[in-house]
């Protein structure tokens, strides 16, 4: 288990009461402003002492108030990256990176300077001064500095929040690589659904100091009800696909997912390239028969596997489409009119596909 947290902490009128476990290589802590994300990260990092509870990172007990254990922050081997890069202005990039190693005992230094700078694409910046770097470059150096301290875990508290969309898109592929190729698990605080859909393998949803959901990113993102603050706008299923072919004459790309094929605006990706798509629950229309005479190109056959009532007049209908699962938000009235029940075969008409592309961030292909 990478993270095992069960803690209570009071600060003023606010109480954090958080319990979750995560095996994720990148665990996103998601929730609205004031829900307790930073408080939780600070408790894991040792910047605050929780009133009560237990925190384990990779099976190592960092806090156990019952047993009187509280490992001080400099002994936790946890790297921190904040919203602002906080580089030392009087040190160049190389010196800033070496500073990361300063507090790690020599025998415990395993992170390879060359490998880290290559992975983050900062090897050509080593002699530059922080003031000459872009926001995205500064954050990559800050991540490198944290990694070179040989942490057991990397905590990132909204590291991209102060960057514009273009700079964020520049950093995403590096975080993808760290997640997939590096050996340091990460915790990312974020309140951006597209960001966590792009990066997270596990998600912990916080609301008003409590964990309202936690689990695999693909499971959590399917359910609109876990994202009340995002409304139904952002939530949806994550579906992996590959570029099957391009239809140049129409400016379209056909993607192959387990659920079927989907046609979207021409993507600048080679045939065979993997794409992670988000099919938002509110962008799925259900039909009992294969639709005819409509302009939508994306219709996926599926079977209803679950129906969940949500607040208000809505219902979440989960479909199995091949080995993918897709959620549609429909009104209770539509559900009754169509006679939707578990086991019923239906057609999911996908109005719009949101997906991520390296270096381009999230793109929306509408009304295909
Ligand atoms: N030192 C403190 N004393 C009293 N209350 C505090 C203290 N620090 C934070 N709080 C309160 O605790 C709550 C949780 O704050 P926290 O910063 O953890 O939220 P957050 O989810 O990280 O928010 P944001 O996304 O805005 O950074 C807030 O209501 C905040 O006002």
TrEMBL record:
InterPro entries: AAA+_ATPase, ABC_transporter-like_ATP-bd, ABC_transporter-like_CS, Mo/tungstate-bd_C_term_dom, ModC_ABC_ATP-bd, Molybdenum_import_ModC, Mop_domain, P-loop_NTPase. Keywords: ATP-binding, Cell inner membrane, Cell membrane, Membrane, Molybdenum, Nucleotide-binding, Translocase, Transport. Residues 293-359 form the Mop domain. SMART domains: AAA (SM00382). One of its GO terms (cellular component) is membrane. The keyword Metal-binding does not apply. This is Molybdenum ABC transporter ATP-binding protein. It comes from Microvirga makkahensis.
């Amino acid at each position: 288990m990478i993270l095992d947290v069960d803690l209570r902490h009071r600060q003023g009128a606010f109480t954090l009461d958080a319990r979750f476990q995560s095996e994720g290589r990148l665990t996103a802590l998601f929730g609205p402003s004031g829900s307790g994300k930073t408080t939780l990260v600070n408790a894991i990092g040792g910047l605050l002492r929780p009133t009560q509870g237990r925190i384990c990172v990779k099976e190592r007990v960092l806090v156990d108030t019952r047993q009187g254990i509280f490992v001080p922050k400099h002994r936790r081997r946890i790297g921190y990256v904040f919203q602002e890069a906080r580089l030392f202005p009087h040190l160049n990039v190389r010196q800033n990176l070496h500073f990361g190693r300063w507090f790690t005992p020599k025998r415990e230094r395993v992170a390879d300077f060359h490998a880290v700078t290559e992975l983050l694409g900062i090897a050509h910046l080593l002699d530059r001064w922080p003031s000459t770097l872009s926001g995205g470059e500064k954050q990559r150096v800050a991540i490198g500095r944290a990694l070179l301290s040989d942490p057991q875990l990397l905590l990132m508290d909204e590291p991209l929040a102060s960057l514009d969309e273009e700079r964020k898109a520049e950093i995403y592929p590096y975080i993808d690589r760290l997640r997939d190729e590096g050996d340091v698990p990460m915790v990312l605080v974020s309140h951006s659904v597209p960001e966590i859909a792009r990066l997270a393998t596990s998600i912990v949803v916080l609301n008003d100091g409590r964990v309202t959901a936690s689990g695999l990113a693909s499971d959590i993102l399917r359910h609109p009800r876990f994202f009340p603050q995002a409304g139904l706008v952002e939530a949806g299923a994550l579906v992996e696909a590959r570029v099957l072919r391009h239809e140049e004459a129409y400016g379209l790309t056909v993607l192959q997912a387990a659920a079927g094929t989907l046609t979207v605006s021409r993507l600048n990706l080679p045939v065979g390239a993997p794409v992670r798509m988000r099919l938002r629950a509110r962008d799925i229309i259900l039909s009992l028969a294969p639709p005819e005479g409509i302009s939508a190109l994306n219709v996926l056959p599926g079977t209803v596997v679950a129906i969940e009532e949500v607040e208000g007049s809505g219902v979440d209908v989960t479909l199995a489409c091949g080995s993918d699962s897709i959620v549609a938000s429909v009104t209770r009235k539509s559900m009754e009119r169509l006679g939707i029940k578990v086991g019923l075969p239906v057609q999911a008409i996908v109005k719009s596909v949101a997906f991520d592309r390296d270096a381009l961030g999230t793109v929306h292909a509408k009304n295909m």
